[in-house]
Design goal:
Number of strands: 24
Radius of gyration: 30 Å
């Protein structure tokens, strides 16, 4: 018989009754009865009930054995009485009578209980992550993660892709976030950077003559934490393809994404094909380029209705619109009929506190004495009847509905309106349940206005091919025209979560120089920061494109987790600290000397 186990704790069934078996695992829970001690024994695979009778010479030792101690039990498999069957676990038809009991590793009192999964502070859970990972929910999430990665890898190979590994120590490259720098001992005063993404390398793989590349790639960015973003490091399904159009990328990747979600949907629906939504349309309808299509609320630009305050009696919005701003309506179906005024006031407070905006206007619609729809709230109260009728027709609102208004400069108004759409949809329980709704966001602008530096700059990805190529760049001789240039850039979004960004790449040096020139960067910048890639392009580069879905976010959605740290084995906390390993930590003076570094104390 094996030294530790003949079966796992999730393996035994009623048909195994009468067998002599050996199990090893952790003491999950103990229950002492008058004539027996019951131990739920847990391992990676499940739970089996072990019964220890008082006649056993190890009975007292078993009673004293603490939770989470590791034990080995040998004994006979017994069929449970019908009334004692536990249908909540796979092994519920049997129990194992302990004839031999060995404590392999006693456990001290655990600071984070495993049984029952009580709510504990996150910092405590991360400090004792190895205990936290024993909990059923988190353990299942990590197993799910492994299965999803295996599925992604298999599907990519089936699509004709080959997996390659790109360097971890590389050169610093401006990709929109801070680099993690690594000092070089052999090259004093110089630094490597951990890759924010394998962007340049995967393009160079295409230049090298390979055709379809993928990698489950680690990426490193010195960013602040969010619910859907881990500080420090993350993994993405990195993909690049040669001789492809945007449509070719969609045709190759959409089946992979849809397929893996269908495989692990667990009864939830995956809607295909993915609709394509231009960036401009997404911003106007949803206030974001990451729309949650489960929410039926559509935004409406109602700025024109407030241009004349003689028709509205509401001068505040007239002033905003007159100054070039926007007024965006966020419908709240049936909210006036089903919610109190407190709901509307709380949304206004939310806008001021959480969004740091001046507030949200609102109006509640009711039915008047003559059957007309009216509002007693300030924004719509003094609308001329004909003007109000046109407004209601344009927005699709009727008696019993509510409506919120986000007003301000265009970008601010849409940002607030998009966030308010999400909040209203959730609070009114309008989101479609049990479904994954994907979309492609396409036609991103190549450039945006940098208000801080008062200049045109790249908006999404500087390596993207502009729609129209060199011709469109040369024709854009004003800032206004430059801001109208679209790129072959695209995102995949699912249920309001951005899963990936991608693009058809700019593979022609002359177009790259021109694209960077418009953003205010001379050829010397391109040749310094992107020397490897721009030089490679001078020796024949194929048209190519790719995408990089985020593995952590895919798992988070499929696991139904609210925080990305719930699907990562050993995550950092919100301050980018590994509390379990005590990282980051101070460096030894000897290490600093070897690296030609000197520590500068932080001033209080």
């Amino acid at each position: 018989m094996h030294a530790f186990r003949t079966h796992t704790c999730g393996e035994l069934r009623g048909t195994d009754a009468g067998k002599i078996v050996r199990l090893s695992g952790w003491v999950h829970r103990k229950r002492e009865h008058a004539n027996a001690l019951f131990i739920d024994l847990r391992d990676h695979y499940g739970i089996s009930q072990v019964v220890v009778y008082p006649v056993a010479d190890f009975y007292e030792a078993a009673k004293r054995c603490t939770s989470e101690s590791v034990i080995t039990v040998t004994g006979e498999v017994l069929a449970r009485d019908k009334e004692a069957i536990n249908n909540e676990i796979d092994t519920g038809e049997i129990e194992v009578r302990a004839d031999e009991f060995i404590i392999e590793s006693p456990a001290e009192q655990v600071p984070v209980p495993v049984f029952g999964e009580p709510d504990y502070p996150e910092d405590l859970r991360l400090t004792y992550r190895y205990l936290d990972l024993r909990r059923e929910t988190l353990h299942k999430n990590i197993i799910l993660r492994g299965k999803i990665i295996n599925s992604l890898r298999s599907r990519m190979v089936d699509q004709g892709f080959t997996e390659f590994q790109t360097p971890i120590l590389t050169a610093s490259s401006p990709e929109g976030a801070r680099d993690f720098l690594v000092p070089s001992r052999l090259n004093p005063g110089k630094f490597y950077a951990l890759p924010q993404a394998p962007q340049q390398f995967k393009q160079l793989i295409m230049v090298s003559g390979f055709d379809r590349y993928f990698q489950i790639a680690p990426c490193f960015r010195d960013e602040d934490a969010r619910a859907d973003r881990s500080p420090g490091e993350f993994y993405q399904l990195d993909i690049e393809m040669s001789f492809v159009t945007q449509e070719d990328v969609f045709n190759a990747i959409e089946p992979v994404m849809a397929g893996v979600f269908e495989e692990f949907a667990d009864g939830r629906e995956v809607q295909t094909p993915f609709p394509r939504i231009p960036y401009k349309e997404s911003m106007e309808k949803y206030g974001t380029d990451k729309p949650d299509l489960r929410n039926p609320i559509l935004l409406k630009d109602v700025s024109d209705f407030f241009k004349d305050d003689s028709l509205t009696g509401f001068g505040i919005f007239k002033k905003i619109v007159g100054g070039g701003g926007k007024v965006i309506a966020i419908p709240a179906p049936k909210a006036a009929a089903e919610k109190s005024r407190k709901f509307f006031d709380n949304m206004d407070k939310w806008a001021k506190k959480e969004m740091q905006m001046p507030g949200l206007g609102y109006a509640r619609l009711s039915e008047g004495e003559n059957g007309e729809t009216r509002s007693q709230d300030p924004v719509l109260k003094n609308f001329e009847p004909e003007h109000l009728e046109k407004f209601l027709k344009a927005t699709g609102l009727t008696a019993g509905d509510g409506v919120f208004f986000a007003a301000g400069q265009k970008s601010d108004a849409y940002k607030l309106a998009g966030a308010a759409r999400n909040s209203v949809g959730e609070q009114l329980e309008l989101l479609e349940d049990g479904v994954f709704k994907f979309c492609w966001i396409v036609d991103f602008p190549m450039y945006e206005w940098d208000e801080d530096n008062k200049k045109v700059d790249f908006s999404h990805n500087p390596f993207s091919m502009p729609q129209g190529g060199m011709e469109i760049l040369e024709a854009a001789n004003t800032e206004e025209k430059q801001l109208e240039i679209l790129a072959y850039q695209y995102d995949i979004v699912c249920n309001g979560v951005e899963l990936s960004s991608g693009a058809i790449r700019n593979h022609k040096p002359e177009i790259m120089y021109k694209a960077f020139e418009i953003a205010g960067y001379g050829p010397e910048v391109v040749e310094d920061k992107f020397a490897g890639m721009i030089n490679a392009f001078k020796y024949g580069a194929p048209p190519h494109g790719g995408i990089a879905p985020g593995v952590d976010r895919i798992v988070m959605l499929l696991a139904g987790a609210k925080n990305i740290r719930e699907v990562i084995l050993f995550p950092m906390n919100g301050q980018a600290q590994d509390l379990m390993m005590n990282a980051p930590s101070d460096a030894d003076p000897k290490q600093l000397k070897e690296l030609y570094l000197k520590h500068i104390p932080v001033e209080d």
